[in-house]
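Hey all, sorry for the wall of text incoming. These are the two entities for the joint prediction.
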Amino acid sequence: MKKIEAIIKPFKLDDVKDALYEAGIKGMTISEVKGHGRQKGHKEIYRGAEYVVDFIPKIKIEIIVDAEIVEQVVETIRSAANTGKIGDGKIFVLPVDDVIRVRTGERGKEAI
Amino acid sequence: MNTGDTSFMLVATALVMFMTPGLALFYGGLVRNKNVLSTIMHSICCLGLISFIWLAYGYSLAFGPDLGGFIGNLDWIGLKGVGLDPGPYSDTIPDLLFCAFQLMFAIITPALISGAYAERMKFTAFLLFTVLWSTFVYMPVCHWVWGQGGWLGKLGALDFAGGTVIHINSACAALVAALMLGKRKGWGQEAFHPHNLPMTVLGAGILWFGWFGFNAGSALSAGKIATLAFFTTQIATGCALMSWVVAEWIIQGKPTTLGAASGAVAGLVAITPAAGFVGPVSATIIGLVAGALCYSAILLKGRLGYDDALDVVAVHGVGGLWGALATGLFASVAWNPDGANGLFFGNPLQFLIQAIGAGAAIVYSLTISFVILKLVDMTVGLRVERDDEIQGLDITQHSEIGYNI
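and here's what came out:
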């Protein structure tokens, strides 16, 4: 099993979510996060004072999937979140030791 | 007594009252969210505090029988003799209504200063400062210009609705307060983002609306001069709004909403002393200059390095000074026979008189504000503790927070 963590542009969330549903993904966790990569921050101007804002709003999606479909899911997210412009985000794939469904106590793949 | 004038002035008085909550929102949106309530309190509390002072002795000091052209005496203490018949300041409205109208001006003036010391002043210091400043700075300067026998009024200084009395006066106190309190913690290192610009724009809108009462109402009667003041207020404010936005667009590359709101306030300030003395075309020029000029003053502030948190000096000081001087340039008896001609209408002396009036207010307000702030600092202390400042004034001074979301 793998965990896929994707950092995407906030306005791309709906596209990514719909694409994941179509690919058969049944659950996900999202959070509003702030950060930057090579894109760096942006400039804000208030009454003449210019501020460089380093951390800009992003959405983080977390999904746990069976190792066999990792490539497919990653590609689904990548194509749905892609705008071709700097700041599109990143996807991380991490190993997962176990998954437990709280209600039934099922473990492993069955619990995803 | 004239019922038309009386009803007009009742409405105008309510409009000016509405400016103070408007100012609370205007300033409140500009600070960080941990200080929104404390900033609002600075304005709202003036509505309570000054009302009482005005009744007790303030009106008497400002408008009572003259003492040497400098201040009123205490004959009208507790509003003794101020009744429902017309008084010395108007033949057509009740004396008490004039008193109420002027009260609203006395309320908003110390509230304006709060923009300079926002986000770091103790609430007790604010209360003490406001009482002392109103008593020893606002009341005398108000008397100089508008009180019967006031020396600036006698000299012929024109201040239609309070450019000198209110804006220059409060901005000088603001400058001294900003310097004496020092910079907010983190100034120059972290960004101080306005936390709610829509709130600020709403506040600016309320100020603009209320300002019609402020300026047109200063005619004290519903008629030609009120109409002139009403129109010049609108045109100057609109021009200043656009002028600020275009100036920052050229210099910094983007037209901002805060620039539009600030430009509008700059225009309102600048037209205040001139409103009932100049024609609409002159008002256009006054507004266009005001927007770009106050924007430049804000750019300069960054270089001078004092922390006037919400730009009272740049907007009210520079805008007010420009308005006072511009009145000496553009005033025209063709528009208001009770006024005077300015420099551009063949009377350079008026410009000089305006400069003297502004200069006197500047020197007096800077000096006495310094003494008062020193006194407050020595007694209750001006500034909150460092940890309280970091936590925010809302929770540490008032035990509440603005937003539970």
